[in-house]
Amino acid sequence: MSLDPQFFRQDDVANVPGPPRDLVGYGEFPPRVRWANEAKVAIQIVVNYEEGSEKSFAMGDGVNDGMYELPFAVDDQRDLAVESMYEYGARAGIWRLFRIFDAANIPVTFFAAAVALERNPAVAEKLARRGDEAAGHGYRWSNHYEMTRDEEREAIRRAIASIEKTTGKRPTGWYCREMSVNTRDLVVEESGFMYDSDTYNEDIPYWTRVDGKNHLVVPYSLVVNDARYVVGTGYASPEHFFETAKASLDRLRNDGDDVGRMMSIGLHPRITGNPARADALARFIDYAKQFDDVAFMRRIDIAEKFAEQVPAPTD
């Protein structure tokens, strides 16, 4: 057996589409940042609002979405069980989450699929009234890597117009379901976004360069993410979610240095909107609020606070 010479490469292949990889980042000495009220840890709760925009036979896609409570699949016709699970998120789950956020008086960011807000305008009205952020999460909840560059450009454009119409404000942040090698270029090309979150490679925002322009990345995380209740090796009970969230916050507050970092929590109304899981979320919020060095912030506020303290490079 002989290995392909490609196996022995030490660097990435030149001229591969998409952003270059960076395996170094801030290294041992990240910038010292502080968040709202001089907090050391910024907790950023994301509500992935996608219900009604997912792939389905009902929407003419000829396929059903697969993120479901049980490992069953209907391949050649409408899957009414999956559809009804998504309906639960829009009908009941989202309002349970809003009640928790209202009781705790905390702001959140919505990764909002535009069509989902169009199909339930009361949700768009509520998040706008609360002052929550609606970041772009696609026109529909679809994979951008399946699109051509022109198709993706059009999908981003339509998402912006739709979200601005339903919430009264243009999105200034972006996060795909699954990005393409063109996504960041197109986000920067569009020029109205302050940041994107299409990466999982840091605990702190960072600047990057796209087509000669500075662009801010506010990373996301899939660790404290309720999708782990239903996919992969994830949470078997709400206690696992609570324990993971608590351990994440405890470590970030005492991480061995004086660096301020962010903690991302990803939620879906159809998942954490269920009572037992919502209870774990509410208990974690109560736990976190007892600390003076912790702040709950919208993603756009984290971006702006970081940019104040770590301005974009000038060279």
UniProtKB/TrEMBL annotation:
Domain NodB homology: 80-297
An annotated GO BP: carbohydrate metabolic process
PROSITE patterns, per database record: NODB (PS51677)
A Pfam family the protein falls into: Polysacc_deac_1
Single Gene Ontology MF annotation: hydrolase activity, acting on carbon-nitrogen (but not peptide) bonds
Xref: SUPFAM superfamilies: Glycoside hydrolase/deacetylase
Protein name: NodB homology domain-containing protein
Phylogenetic classification of the source organism: Bacteria, Bacillati, Actinomycetota, Actinomycetes, Micrococcales
